Amino acid sequence: MFVAVGSGKSKHTHKTRDRDRYTQGRVSRTTPFSLAFFANIPIIQNNMKVILLSDVPNVGKKYDVAEVKPGFARNFLFARGLGEVITKGTAKRVAELTKKREVEKSRQEELLQNAFTKLKDAVVTLKRKTNEEGHLYAGVTKEELAEELGKAVGAAFFAEYIQLEKPIKQIGEHIVPAILKGKEAEFKVIVEAE
């Protein structure tokens, strides 16, 4: 227990003494240390805008404008060459780069749509090592099919478009479905023994 020193007439604890000061009007309730004082001050956002020069997980894609903490920008993005501060000059460059990215994306989609129409006639032939029973030692995966299919139709083809449940492990003809933006097509895969 805290005993007040000085007058000797009262033995107040520090809690009672502070309460008494407020009730007697000596200390205003709007002192800088009260919550009411801070309620009217806006919270300062100290984030900064950066342009991403490559894809950064959980932040954004290449040429996106991201708002990040200054420490993250300095210590991670700028140090690794993944980002750049937005200024008046870079803002114009950002607009040009995003426009360029959109044009490239639309061109890729157009090529992919054309390739998807050619897909019905596409035949992918693969030669693999087999055992005596005709089983492949290593199955043909979606990734291998996507690479060979890209060569056959003349466009970049991603493995995620190919709907193959498990790798092909038998020699012979196989019909494999592919889906792109709701459109479905099938192509033929011929696996031959070496």
Mean pLDDT: 79
Q: Percent of residues in helical segments?
A: 25-40%
Using the 3D structure, state the CATH architecture of the largest domain: Roll
String of helices and strands: HHEEHEHEEHEEE
Beta strand %: 15-25%
Task: Provide the spatial order of strands within the biggest beta sheet.
Answer: 2-1-3
Shape: elongated
Assign the CATH class of the largest domain. Answer: Alpha Beta
Described by strand count, sense and barrel closure, the largest sheet is:
3 strands, antiparallel
Question: What's the number of structural domains?
Answer: 3
Query: Helical stretch count?
Result: 5
**CATH fold assignment of the largest domain:** Ribosomal Protein L9, domain 2
**Main structural class:** alpha+beta
Gist of the model:
35% of the residues lie in helices and 24% in strands. The protein is of the alpha+beta class and 194 residues long.
Describe the secondary-structure layout.
Blueprint: H1 14-23, H2 35-39, E1 48-52, E2 65-68, H3 70-78, E3 83-85, H4 88-118, E4 123-128, E5 135-140, H5 142-153, E6 168-170, E7 172-180, E8 183-193
Parallel strand pairs: 4-8
Antiparallel strand pairs: 1-2, 1-3, 5-6, 7-8
Q: How is this structure best described in words?
A:
The protein has 194 residues and is α+β, with helices and mostly antiparallel strands. The chain folds into 3 domains: 1-37, no CATH class; 48-109, Ribosomal Protein L9, domain 1; 114-193, Ribosomal Protein L9, domain 2 (Roll). Helix content is 35%, strand content 24%. The protein has helices spanning 14-23, 35-39, 70-78, 88-118, 142-153, and strands spanning 48-52, 65-68, 83-85, 123-128, 135-140, 168-170, 172-180, 183-193. The longest helix is centred in the middle third of the chain and has 31 residues, at 88-118. It holds the Pfam family Ribosomal_L9_C.
